[in-house]
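Narrative progress, year one. The postdoctoral researcher (J.K.) led the effort to move from monomer predictions toward full complexes, under supervision of the PI. The following entry was the first complex the group processed end to end, covering 970 residues in total.
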Amino acid sequence: MDTITFSTDLESNIRLMQTIFQGDNTFVTRRAVGHAGLSCAVFFFDGMVNNIAINQSVIRPIVCSDLGRASAETLCQTVLQINDSRVETDVSKLFASFLYGDTVVFTEGEARPVVVNTKGFSVRSASEPENERVLSGPREGFTECFMPNLALIRRRLNDKRLKFTFLRIGSRTNTVVCLCYLAGVCEQKLIAHLKRKLEALDIDSVLDANYLAERIRDHRLSPFPTLGTTERPDVVAARLVEGRCAIVVDGSPVVLTAPFLFQECFQSNDDYYISFLQANLSRLLRVAGFVFTITFPAVYIALMLYHRELVPARLLFAVSAAQRGVPLPIGWETFLLLLVLEALKEAGARTPGAMGQTMSIVGGLVLGQAAVSARFAAAPTVIVVAIAGVTGLMVPKLQTATLWLRFALLAGAAAYGLYGVSFALALVLTWLCRMHSCSIPYLLNLIPRVQAEQEDAWLRAPWFFMRYDRFAVKRNSSKGDKP
Amino acid sequence: MKLPGILLLLSLLLCGCAREVSPVSALALDRTDDVYRLTAEVVRQDSLDDAASPAYLSATGRDLPELLTNLSNILPGDLYLSHAQVLLISESVAEESILPLADYLCTENDVRLSLRVAVVRDGAATDLLQADDEIYALSELLDRAAQEGTLPDMPLYRVSEVLHADGTAILPALHLDEFGQTAPAGTAVFANERLSCFLDGGEIGGGAHA
Amino acid sequence: MRERLFPRWGAALFALLPLSEILYTTAGTQTVYAAALASLICALICAGGARLAPIWQRSRALQWLLALFALWPLTSSLARMGVFLRSTVFSSRPLWSLILLLTVCTMLAATSGLNRCAMWALPVAWLAGVIVILSGILTVSQLQPMHWGMPDATLPRETGRILLRLLPASLVLSLSLPERLSGAAARGLATGGALFALISLRTTLLLGVHTAALLPYPNFSAAGLAAIGDFARHGEVFFAVPLLLCELGRCAALACVLLLLFSHSYGVLRLSRRAKQ
């Protein structure tokens, strides 16, 4: 692209553009000649532009113009009747804008083109994200369209310190990525850290936020998330107020937030929009649900294999009776049933619409019942796996961790009973103690407690109790530490 | 990712050969001459819909370790004593030192320290054990009586302690009444680790007074 | 956040030491006093040791000496944990395989450094404390005060036996502390020691001296009498799990002292380039 140079001859510029985009049938060239002889060429991509804007603000002013000749500046300032146009001399920027839905106008005798903002592709409405529904509270969600997403954030944060810094990433996709932060609230070190990481990326395409997330996050192999993801502008606004950074990627409704702490896995949007009494109960239930879903199958087989003395007598007799005739040992049976559960979830997620729900119900109820009747599996094992599956849905942010930990603890239980489970959990805790997100300890507020953030760690304090400076995540939080 | 996956599967292999267990809910110990007879009330439940029912298996031997070995040899699964809640001993067993018996049971990993020991009066312990078709009926009877104070509250660990301390202990006594039902039969008094006499219900008010 | 060992974490780390003795200590009338006395002596010695730590750490030779000395409590801890597991649950597993498992767990925890071990110790110490207290509360109604006894001539010998197990690990850790945490060390040991003495008291009053003497792990066996209704009767394992975790934490901290020679940032291995000074 850098080798392309335009001339002052309009015809040769038209030929050059047509050569570059030869074979692309959406590429449109429109000649426009004014009353007094002003000759221009307008280039745009069909489907990417707002046709009304081109007709009324670009073509008509040229055709109706009384000028015989116009420089690029004159064309931009006097002729074109549009709010956003500029003379572009940088060829790479010119093509980036052009490919993104802007219109390029060349005029006779001028080598510098004018870029007019006429983007007008179809966008989805800002509906409530499926994955982050709330009982009460705002129901807007991000879409795949970049600028409206930024507008959704700015609408919530009417603060002059809100900054949007653009970067372009991806040698092929040339995707616009925006780093958002509140200057003065977010630490400069954090902004520089993220900017450095984003600029250092050498990749060909960014089609979704996850393309970046997996590359820039700390502990990239860990199943625990170290970057936050959300599709809700209110969540992003809240994170920015807390001193975090957000990364908006063009074409993706998912916005990344950093740093991300372990406590955030158990926070839900609803927590802040409903009574703190109810919210705290829900939050504790989510914590319990996470612990339950990873440990329940493991504890079950540990009890049945190594610690039967702990099980109430009549329950033990019932489980032993149910287990009789089942071909597999209980450890393998639980392992395979958990795999079946994951397979059902996968099938339900990949099957369209209502059919997916039907699949889950058929899989869960009918197959489970049939497996028990046919003695493929014991009823108590099916119940244990089902309960683990249901409680696993309570903390969606930890689904990957849940999946892996469930199997790891199951293996620990199969090998060493409750001792194996506890050793495995201890090692997980060690790993969590080692983790950090953007140089901030991952367990901040849970084990290393920071006084300023205690109002929203394990529990959410009522709004009237929270302090003004409760949030700011500090990278060097020696001040205010209460270990 | 391969290595953790392989380790997970290998760990699961370790549990592949767990044997079925034969849970015992109560034991009865009798003696004829020098030979002991141990009867175990083994719980059987074939399906979830059935009720748990007792089955009785007996073995003979010269001491408790031998009895337990012989008993486990005739059981379909592993002898599992963790859910045993009552040990009945006949008068003939109680008339010799019961301290070794108590010590052995205390040190056995599987046996609960809260196991209740009772002396069967006027009859074989095995007969009394087999008189009731419902599992844990005996332990519920002894628990209730201990709570109400009508029989001594003497679980295994207390029996062992008092016998070690001065060789004197009291244990609940049971017998089969005229209708063939299990009923409390006062208190068995031990002196020098041996059964000394029985006191009827009214004579001693249970463990609290003892 | 800067690598730093906070006093509360330090206290938790030291609290693990007496807590990890609970499983292996015999129960008797003198054990109650001996546990309290030994913990108190350890607390005083370690408070002094922690003050000397900066001087001690200046000498490379002394650090080597300390690391070699740490091998004694470390190996004895691993061995007794292995024996405990084998004699209580895994009777068919070879002892070496259990010790190997424990060693692997210890080393995995230790490579994260002394700071993170101390950070990890905080929830584990809380868990163990809660379980120990809960176990005590659930058996209160069965306690028999007549088993109580006053200190007698065997107390010094009993105290010495506990000190022999408790002091080496405490001393090694107090001399390896990255910061002056003498107060934290004393607090941790005193708190852990108090729980240790209380649970010994519970076992003595519950089982009696003679029954307790019969059992290889009396505190463990006594915990089996703490049940909630029909649930967790014979539930010693619930009691043993947090205490074994305490001992695992103790082993990890001692292994960190070994690794200190080859590490920076209080035990984070040099292999990790991202670890900060």
